[in-house]
């Protein structure tokens, strides 16, 4: 190891300071929002809540968790994430496996057809009119069907499948497996890492989507939690009104004068972030791998 | 992308027996794997592409495209002559340029810094924390920003008051002058860590012997960044730069919709994509909005082509 020169020492010190600041500024908003969600709203309004709650309370969560509409939004989010991810991964990987077959007639044209969609799209309005024309407005399936096949994921799957030893398929064929049997019994069980990575990104996309529901869904019972949260935050910033609550939560609210719209929206935000924070530590190794597969294959 | 064309060539070579139809029928099982997916792509990608033609029509909500009259470039002219044209174009260009100039180099800088860290635990913590915001929805991120900048116990106002920089809390999100700064900072905050992953991987691929040789020659670490690390990762940087240039007219959408809620910000926040959304979805002027969207798409493809042409002359290109 070569000893660092004077200038290099300054640089390293500067880097440590800078990165510490970066980590702090990234972490602080989470921490502060969590703290506000655990502090009484009336006290927060006095200001000065930064690193630690002054008047600790669980009332904010009590109100939010009593709001059946928000719970329903959470349920819709979970449902679309699980169903959407599962169906998308199964159909896209099956598609990708078919595309690895050299004898597939039309393979070259199919591929061109896929790649064109990576560079061109119809844009917002024609897609909106299509969805409306198909009668998918105000239907749960609008979350699942339009994004079912991802060309990008198909290419990553295809690259992965092509890298599997060819002998596997041959021995499966000798044992009497058809192409579908080979795919479900041999190929898929061997594709754990790539399935994990792509499922992660697909699931995060589903969980975080708030915009499409905001234009395709009018029925409040079908709104996912992110779209509801957006409405709550908007009410806050424009008119600073109390978050729109249903009657059960209003009753709860009447008993507790200490909650405010700010403390409530923070509690809602924490609940909507929780699933991501919970799975994050376990999936970190997968997404680093996933990014590299996606970008370096370019 | 190049491997696709290389791989598909041998497919045609071996002579097959039977007509196309019988051969097709014989491989129905693998065709059945791909055809439903292709049908989905056709419906959800190609039909909207055809739908773009309504930019040249006066779209009739009841009759659909078939019964809508063709009007040529009417909607494009209308957009160019509209009072919003100047504001929308200015905001789009300024915001995307700011995002490009600051948001593009930021992850590279972070990767270079992380590479100089020898303490693995510290490095791991910084990485773990800085990747996280990428996985949050824009709603959550906007919620954080609103909370940080709020006049009601907003941490930035608390800090600035403690430092005696201001007397009264400022409503940052209702002051047009601050909007671009907030937007760009938020974007960098969300994506800097995740964006650095690719560059870290590229740096990890640099031959360590080069650093050893440079150490021997007495080059400082600082010097090595510019003479070894940066030139080595240049091909990756160029590819991402081409993609970023192709997206130059995508100034933002979700972030602007969520952070620019306050109507006083319209003057500085309205960009092409949000304009299309407002005019098209909210005011249901479908043909006009499609025309504005198409205008943006055409310029973007042009930018991408030009960027790729320049990159090819320097030896790196997408296609």
Notes on the protein architecture:
The complex is a heterodimer of chains A (298) and B (319). Chain A has 298 residues and is mostly helical. Chain A has a single domain (71-293), classed as MetI-like fold (Orthogonal Bundle), CATH 1.10.3720. Chain A is built from 14 helices and no strands. Chain A has helices at residues 6-37, 41-44, 59-66, 68-100, 107-119, 124-133, 151-163, 166-174, 179-187, 192-208, 211-216, 225-239, 247-255, 261-296. The radius of gyration of chain A is 25 Å and the shape is globular. Chain B has 319 residues and is mainly α. Chain B has a single domain, classed as MetI-like (MetI-like fold). Chain B is built from 16 helices and no strands. In chain B, helix 4 crosses helix 16 (286-313). The longest helix of chain B is centred in the middle third of the chain and has 29 residues, at 176-204. Chain B starts with a helix and ends in a 6-residue tail after the last helix. Chains A and B meet through helix 1, helix 4, helix 5, helix 6 and helix 7 of A and helix 1, helix 2, helix 3, helix 6 and helix 7 of B. Chain B: It is a multi-pass membrane protein. Chain B: Residues 89-307 form the ABC transmembrane type-1 domain. Chain B: InterPro entries: MetI-like, MetI-like_sf. Chain B: Keywords: Membrane, Transmembrane, Transmembrane helix, Transport. Chain B: Its main location: membrane.
Quick tags:
heterodimer, A: 298 residues, mainly alpha, MetI-like fold, 14 helices, 72% helix, B: 319 residues, 0% strand
Q: For the record, what is the CATH homologous superfamily label of chain A? A: MetI-like
What is the terminal separation of chain A in angstroms? Answer: 36 Å
Summed up, the helix count of chain B is 16
Tell me the CATH topology of chain A: MetI-like fold
Number of domains of chain B: 1
In the CATH classification, which architecture of chain A applies? Answer: Orthogonal Bundle
Q: Which residue ranges of chain B are poorly predicted, with pLDDT under 50 across at least 5 consecutive positions?
A: 1-14
N to C succession of SSEs of chain A: HHHHHHHHHHHHHH
Helical residue percent band of chain A? over 70%
What would you report as the Rg of chain A, rounded to the nearest angstrom?
Answer: 25 Å
Largest interface: A-B, 109 and 98 residues
GO cellular component, one term (chain A): plasma membrane
Family (chain A): Belongs to the binding-protein-dependent transport system permease family.
Transmembrane segments (chain A): 12-31, 74-97, 109-134, 140-161, 182-204, 264-283
Membrane topology (chain A): Multi-pass membrane protein
